[in-house]
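Feature request, filed as a ticket because there's no other form

It would be nice if the structure record came with a short human-readable summary line next to the tokens. Right now we just get the raw output. Example of a typical job, pasted below so the devs can see what we mean:
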Amino acid sequence: MTTPHDDEFDWDRREAEILNLDEARNRRDATTPDPDTTPLANSDGTVTSADGLPLAAPSGHPDTSVMVDSPAAQRRPRFTLAGVKDGTRRPIIPDSIRSRTQVTSNAAWLAGYVAHAAGFHAVRLPLYAGKAVWRAPRGFARVAGGFVRWLFDLEGEPVRQATVRTEDADAYLKLSRQRDRRVRWRGLVGAAVAAVVVLAVVGWLLSPAWARWAALAALLAVLGVAGAPQDRPLLDTAVVRSGVTPLTSDQVIRALSALRIVGIDRAIRAGDTGRNWFPAPITRDGPGWRADVELPRGVTAAEVVEKREELASALTRPLGCVWPEANAAVHPGRLVLFVADKDMSAMKQPPWPLLKAGKVDLFTPFAFGTDPRGSVVTITLMFASMVIGSIPRMGKTFALRLALLAGALDPRAELHVYDLKGTGDLAPLEPVAYRYRAGDDDEDMAYSVAAMREVRAEMRRRTKVIRDLPRDVCPENKVTPELASRKSLGLHPIVIGVDECQIWFEHPNHGAELEEICTDLVKRGPALGIELLLGTQRPDAKSIPPNISKNAVLRFCLKVLGWRENDMVLGDGMHGAGIKATMFSRRDSGIGYLAGDGDDPVIARTFYVDGPTADAVVKRARALRDKAGTVTGHAAGQTIDTAAARRDTLLDDIAAVMPDSEPKLWTDIVCERLAAVRPDVYAGLTREQLTAALKPWGVATGQVWGTDPATGNGANRRGIDRQHILDAITVRDRKGGGKAAG
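Raw output as currently delivered:
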């Protein structure tokens, strides 16, 4: 290195100096303005950003500027231990390999593929043999001709002839010498090959007949393959693969621009090419492609999800292959687009992993379905109630039955099954059900009311058991797997499945009471081991009362027609957040949004278990229960007393606790007397619950003057007029005891 004044430069001093690169970079960043982030000073002294927006008032000097986005602030944080701790570790072994179900499924598919290919070609062996014999002469000519050309170096003959025509003697002599050397050593190889052929022929003649025929067949096969035309191979194709076009960024951008979404159209008109919409590369994700898309500012992923059908058309893919989802964990404008190779509704669903073997522990997850990528989706029934909703014929009952089948495979679980549609879809579960009823006649409703009163009494018993257990045995004040397995405590899981639950809640006689019991079960039951599963084809406020829907943890929503039904099943605001079961088509039977078991709702297709298959599963579940000694209730031939529910003893009981000498009583006093008469039915009854139970009979509470037994003072409080009760009994009896007033 030299300088213009090398003789005057102080090399010793310069070599002793050490340049601090960090300080130099900071000085450079502080003095170098960023045209995109540096505010601009106008002629009037105002300060504006590069976009022309005012940032600060003039400070008395026209050159004053405010550094809003400094280069130091824009620089990425350096590598730190805290940053690494907060990072997400990618699994060492992919989920597809760790999943026993997927490995088993893939192995079964491979075995089936090999068996199919072997059978396909085995059937065509005579055809292949004929082709081989027919093509063998051509194959022999090709092999012999190729050997002769190689032996005499005929591939170099055109080059040697060209040197003769150009009269290039030196080049010709070099090529001739090269040919002579090649032919000499190739002749030796050819002689060795000829000797081997002679020995092979002699060995063939001396071999047994089966060996001669086998060798001849092998020779004909080799010659047949050699003699096959390039466009007509010897073997036919056993499996024809369908060509699937890979997903590219250009396809995604064109498809999104075709949706006519205002924010996307505005961005494209402003010159946005969409190349910066992808925060990560498009990758293969299971049986399809995944594209993460950062939509233009102001555009939400929910707008794209709503136009799923148009998006599939723009991508020229089947509707069942296109699954847009909102990634709300990032922000509302982050879209996750999964494009599958095959239509999810037409794809062959793997068998339920619990179909032929295995038990279920309701405290742990069990397989419920698969997502669009083919991964298994699980749910955990314990400590959670579940709501399943859809329009008719979309797989709601099958989803409910699948959850109940899982409950049946836990020998500890007590099943209560109510098929209010009455078609027998839940009939396979009858051999393992503690309580079972199909239909909505008066007898069926009386059975349901009596059984649910039993469950409410059982829930109250369990609260006392849990409360009295030592802290070290029950530290969380809820049922644990260990407590559920102790028969002496009676804390086994209770799973109640109700199909077409709106029939219960809208019943003129028992609707209010059933709603009150179910609301209590949804709120308090899960911690006590009682799970309520409700299915309806008309999800609205009457079919699923708000107090029930708001407290249900698990939600599975198949196709619905509007946002109200969507949010009634999945929860308030879900439709606006891009979780839209309205996007499913009529072909998407069994496919819905599952919420409550993970951090975010997922699209799941339930495992398909038809009636005969369900019978086989229940047969295995019955054997498990016989072995564990847990076959009780309806499954053991026991009946339930429905007389009280049929005549609705509430009115009669109130009349009994209100003598003629007390024509009017406070509601609180009536509740206390009812609990004393029938503690198994009325224990814990509140005045609000009693008021709600009397409404179907046209009995209203009002202000009643009475004496407070605690103080002896008179006061006005809400109470019941005995004459109103007697009038309601008269109306009931006149109508045959089955219908309430109104």
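Something like this underneath would help us a lot:
Residues 32-61, 736-742 have pLDDT under 50 and may be disordered.
The chain has 28 helices and 20 strands.
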